[in-house]
Design a protein that fits this description.
Its EC number is 3.5.4.16. By secondary structure, the protein is an alpha+beta fold. It has helices at about 35-45, 65-80, 95-105, 165-175, 185-200, 210-215, 240-245, and strands at about 120, 130-140, 150-160, 160-165, 180, 205-210, 225-230. The chain is about 30% helix and about 20% strand. Helix 2 crosses helix 3 and helix 4 (about 165-175) runs antiparallel to helix 5 (about 185-200). Bound molecules: zinc ion (ZN).
């Protein structure tokens, strides 16, 4: 499928360019004619159409090395358009560094090939209480502004007879975080994967995170954080939910 308005040139003509190319500008505004004001507002509106990350059908037709070469060329253009002198020693490696960071680190979780494999073990101890893994580091990227979302996730499950290695809980969080995200979708994707991996509906996920698009631009609020939660199965039961919230330090204060 041919991308619309973008040029997926091979590096032979794309990555080698030093000048400014405004490829695709004739095809109209990148946001298909929406006003700047509306685009800003949509960046604050977290209406979710779908639990799945919106990916193109040809998302993985290009291999990672080619993606890095192409992103490098395009990022060089962005810097050039901003007026930066890419012959400067400090700047000249930046396009490649950013491209490698996007593909190998920041957005690594887009590729299903990087999904952590989970092995189920029998719950030998017959431990049938909830297991809570709290304060899991969340480092994600806002898909509306391409700046970081940084915070913590608390996840819990009640074993259906099977358990997974504890570090897998962290890895599942990390995998879905390493994508352009909105926090609501990230929360639900983690909950869904926990249900699938643990073969139970009894899971809970809370994410408490600061969005750099809120703290470093726009409203510039450095104090606020955003909380999202997904409860299913036994965690929809108020007593179970409160027990989980107590363990993660978020329970209602009792009078
Ligand atoms: Zn944002």
């Amino acid at each position: 499928m041919k991308p619309n308005g973008t040029s997926l040139n091979t590096p032979s003509n794309g990555a080698a360019s030093n000048g400014i190319h405004l490829n695709g500008h004739k095809n109209g505004h990148a946001t298909h004619g929406l006003s700047d004001e509306l685009v800003d507002e949509m960046g604050d509106n977290h209406a979710l159409a779908n639990l799945e990350t919106p990916l193109r059908p040809d998302a993985f037709d290009l291999d990672d090395d080619l993606k890095i070469d192409l992103i490098e060329a395009h990022f060089r253009e962005i810097m050039t358009i901003l007026g930066l002198d890419l012959t400067d020693d400090s700047l000249k490696g930046t396009p490649r560094r950013v491209a490698k960071m996007y593909v190998n680190e920041t957005f690594k979780g887009l590729n299903p090939a990087n999904k952590p494999s989970t092995t189920l073990f029998d719950n030998k101890y017959q431990y049938n209480q909830m297991l809570v893994e709290r304060d899991i580091t969340v480092q994600s990227y806002c898909e509306h502004h391409f700046v970081p979302i940084i915070g913590k996730a608390h996840v819990a499950y009640i074993s259906s007879g099977k358990v997974i290695g504890l570090s897998k809980l962290n890895r599942i969080v990390q995998y879905y975080a390493k994508r352009p995200q909105v926090q609501e979708r990230l929360t639900m994707q983690i909950a869904d994967e926990l249900k699938r991996a643990l073969q139970t509906d009894d899971v809970a996920v809370i994410i408490d995170a600061a969005h750099l698009c809120v703290s470093t631009r726009g409203v510039n609020d450095t104090a606020s954080s955003t909380l999202t939660a997904a409860y299913s199965g036994k965690f929809e039961d108020e007593a179970t939910k409160q027990e989980f919230l107590k363990y993660v330090g978020m329970a209602k204060p009792t009078m």
